[in-house]
Amino acid sequence: MSVAVSSGWTREREREGREGWREEEQATKLASNFWSKKVSEVSRSLHLKAGESLILGLMEKPRNQVRRLHDKIWGAKWTSGTASNSTIWVLGASYEFQPETRDEPVAEFLLDFSSRVWLTYRRGFEALGQSKFTSDVGWGCMLRSGQMLLAQALVCHHLGRGWRLDPDQPLERKYLEILQSFGDCRGALYPFSIHNLLERGSPYGLVAGSWLGPYALCRTIEALALADIEASKNEKQKRALPMAVCVVSGDAEGERGGAPVLFIEDVTDKCAEWEDGPGKWAPLLVLVPLVLGLEKVNPRYLPSLRATFSFPQSLGIAGGKPGASHYLVGIQDDQALYLDPHETQQAVSISPDDVEADTHSYHCREVRRMPLDAIDPSLALGFYCKSREDFDDLCTRASELATQSQGAPMFTVAQGRSRKHSTDGFNLDKLSIDVQESSTKDHVNADTASSPEDDWQIL
């Protein structure tokens, strides 16, 4: 009897094993078909030659190749085992490695990185405007990158650059208010939501489903700030954005390239406008949209790009690979470290009154990296200056950087004012680098949540 039972048990396990193997095989084929389709989209959007497409076509064995494909497109993971001992710069903070103290700066770096606000694709939110879009998957990555840069400015303003998310302490109300302000909803409680950004960007031709470029992103944030000022004057409501916004991009006819000039008097005017009084200074968000090459960044600009991450005013870079925006926050050697918005998560609601709110979807424990020379030449730099002294220091550092650029400054600083030009009703149809249909730009959606075993990976 026992032999029969044992034999029956064995046959049952074998049958289950065969069924499990068939299910796994079917799932593998589905994954292969899915990624093969994505590969075709990527190949077309990257304009790969026939010979190059074979690198992306290794979908016969999908498991390892899918990961390689993901790394090729989104960037490889940073690991303590493969990273060099070179200093890491993250938004003005440095982490220097010594053989005997390596673990300590790695832990400090990871805490710093994971404390940055991470904003990604979301699904299941309120429809955007008159559209039926309830998700920004496939087209909203530049908006999310811009939100992350703006969130970092708010963190620096309200909590300080040295702020870290402490899992052992109750959540701070101001931190929760910052998260709430980026909630995917309409209304005054969510001033920096994707809904409001699209509404403020509509004069520039921005609509749900269209890909957004760095220049248009900067102008949209500027328009949001101007609307905030008007609302506070007319409706006597508290301003959502506690800082003036200055976009450094030169004259209107020069928006598509060249080295823009930061005119100091322009900034003075911006601060006076924000404070509603001449001679007054305001906290300041400086945005610098740039085009640093044609198909790739001109190598002459790379040293200057690296150096900006060491500026104490640094808010990083909204940019990334062609058609796939990221938020670049750090640099090590020639590798840019970034937060990736291409992960789809369910829309959530955060209340400042809930000190035990689940905010894990707003922080990333995966550090990804890409060669700095592989980023798209169209990008936007961000800087936050809390005081006039901060701004003067930024001007000094930027001027020194321009002097060291060997004739290729990213932007320069000058006294005086620029020629005034209105951005009201500016037609972005003339700027093909800025607004593109999503079908030709944002080419892969990493629509998978991190598994529990991925928690706190040193990647």
From TrEMBL:
Chain positions covered by the region annotation Disordered: 1-23, 437-459
Protein's GO biological process: aggrephagy; autophagosome assembly; mitophagy; piecemeal microautophagy of the nucleus; protein processing; protein transport
Residues making up the signal peptide according to the UniProt record: none
The keyword Protein transport is assigned to this record: yes
Residue ranges constituting the Peptidase C54 catalytic domain according to the UniProt record: 107-396
Comp. bias intervals (Basic and acidic residues): 10-23
Major localization class: cytoplasm
Keyword Protein transport: yes
SUPFAM superfamilies named in the record: Cysteine proteinases (SSF54001)
Subunit relationships: Interacts with ATG8.
Name used for this protein in its record: Cysteine protease
Organism: Marchantia polymorpha subsp. ruderalis
Source taxonomy: Eukaryota, Viridiplantae, Streptophyta, Embryophyta, Marchantiophyta
